[in-house]
């Protein structure tokens, strides 16, 4: 039986994507060859890469606006380093908002390149809110933020307006809500949440911000090189890119980002309403900053843990244990998680209340 998969990433993908991806492993495009055994330079794979890059821009409404979409490797973690390498001016500085483990990972890498100003941080309260009052230095090369904090369950509901390039790590909420992506100059995201399997990282960059840092950048870390080589500077992760394309096609067929946002909101509303209603549970973050992707919550009384854990496991739920830095539970409700799965979890929470 298929589990209700709340894993934080890698995570659930649409069932039809799993099926189509499996078919391509055996016989890709009726070619008599597996997608795993063809050249990345073959006509069929180049078409996959081209369509995936174009579909990203189409879904984000960024076509014809000076952006390029790249499928790279090294995870979002390598982008922590590529961003300052490509954008922080020699002798310049960069500004960062510290909203959690991943944001502080990005800050650590930036420090190796130059002055790194942390404009605000919610570390003092274990990252349970998004700081809102801060000033971005106008002489910084860029401002970096993390739209959704996968571990702590907070999400930025609005983004600052600034004259300097705006860079955002959208690893855990990309393609989940309709925002004006043209406000951003560089967006990156590991594929393994809303887009596909682990193994590729999406970078969407406005070309005009590149080539201005004054640094000598190794080719493999240079966004301009990847653009020139049409995201094939070296052998791309073909299967991860293909499976991402299948997920992007699924999203387009569903009606795009605006359509999935409505579904994501119903899922999040259903779960957060139960967390707030049920006296046995409490949320861990400021209500106005709650993530619609990762809901973090605790049992009021830890003595109920054993019973609750046995109940959700019996209901076919998987992957809701909280991250060790928050404890409790984390229900990740990425795009492919059906509303049905949230109903099952909410029913288990109600059942627990009846049993106590
Ligand atoms: N940023 C965010 C917001 C994440 O959630 C993660 C991973 N969960 C990362 C960065 C690191 O991504 P990767 O493992 O692809 O390097």
From TrEMBL:
Pathway: Amino-acid biosynthesis; L-serine biosynthesis; L-serine from 3-phospho-D-glycerate: step 2/3; Cofactor biosynthesis; pyridoxine 5'-phosphate biosynthesis; pyridoxine 5'-phosphate from D-erythrose 4-phosphate: step 3/5. Binds 1 pyridoxal phosphate per subunit. Keywords: Amino-acid biosynthesis, Aminotransferase, Cytoplasm, Pyridoxal phosphate, Pyridoxine biosynthesis, Serine biosynthesis, Transferase. It is found in: Cytoplasm. The modification N6-(pyridoxal phosphate)lysine is found at residue 193. InterPro entries: Aminotrans_V_dom, Aminotrans_V_PyrdxlP_BS, Pser_aminoTfrase, PyrdxlP-dep_Trfase, PyrdxlP-dep_Trfase_major, PyrdxlP-dep_Trfase_small. GO terms for molecular function: O-phospho-L-serine:2-oxoglutarate aminotransferase activity. The keyword Transferase applies. Pyridoxal 5'-phosphate binds at residues 76-77, 102, 150, 169, 192, 234-235. It catalyses: O-phospho-L-serine + 2-oxoglutarate = 3-phosphooxypyruvate + L-glutamate; 4-(phosphooxy)-L-threonine + 2-oxoglutarate = (R)-3-hydroxy-2-oxo-4-phosphooxybutanoate + L-glutamate. Its cofactor is pyridoxal 5'-phosphate. It is an enzyme of class 2 (transferase). It comes from the Bacteria. This is Phosphoserine aminotransferase. It comes from Flavobacterium jejuense.
């Amino acid at each position: 039986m298929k589990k209700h998969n709340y894993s934080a990433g890698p995570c659930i993908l649409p069932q039809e994507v799993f099926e189509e991806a499996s078919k391509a492993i055996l016989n890709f495009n009726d070619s008599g060859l597996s997608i795993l055994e063809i050249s990345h330079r073959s006509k069929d794979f180049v078409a996959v890469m081209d369509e995936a890059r174009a579909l990203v821009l189409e879904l984000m409404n960024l076509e014809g606006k000076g952006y390029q979409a790249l499928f790279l490797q090294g995870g979002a973690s390598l982008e922590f380093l590529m961003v300052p390498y490509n954008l922080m001016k020699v002798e310049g500085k960069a500004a960062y908002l510290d909203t959690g483990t991943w944001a502080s990972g990005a800050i650590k890498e930036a420090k190796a390149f130059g002055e790194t100003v942390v404009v605000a941080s919610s570390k003092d309260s274990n990252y349970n809110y998004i700081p809102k009052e801060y000033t971005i230095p106008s002489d910084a090369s860029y401002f970096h933020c993390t739209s959704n904090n996968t571990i702590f369950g907070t999400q930025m509901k609005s983004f600052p307006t600034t004259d300097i390039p705006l860079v955002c790590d959208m690893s855990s909420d990309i393609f989940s809500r309709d925002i004006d992506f043209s406000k951003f100059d560089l967006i990156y995201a590991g594929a393994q949440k809303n887009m596909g399997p682990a193994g590729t990282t999406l970078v969407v960059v406005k070309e005009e911000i590149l080539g201005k840092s004054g640094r000598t950048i190794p080719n493999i870390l240079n966004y301009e090189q990847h653009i020139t080589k049409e995201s094939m500077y070296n052998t791309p992760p073909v299967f991860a890119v293909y499976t991402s394309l299948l997920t992007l096609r699924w999203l387009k067929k569903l009606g795009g980002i605006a359509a999935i946002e409505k579904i994501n909101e119903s899922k999040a509303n259903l779960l957060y309403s139960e967390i707030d209603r049920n006296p046995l549970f409490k949320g861990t973050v400021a209500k106005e900053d709650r993530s619609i992707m990762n809901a973090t919550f605790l049992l009021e009384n830890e003595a109920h843990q054993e019973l609750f854990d046995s109940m959700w496991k019996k209901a076919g739920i998987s992957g809701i244990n909280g991250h060790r830095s928050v404890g409790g539970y984390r229900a990740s409700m990425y795009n492919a998680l059906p509303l049905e799965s949230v109903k099952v979890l909410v029913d288990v929470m109600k059942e627990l209340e009846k049993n106590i």
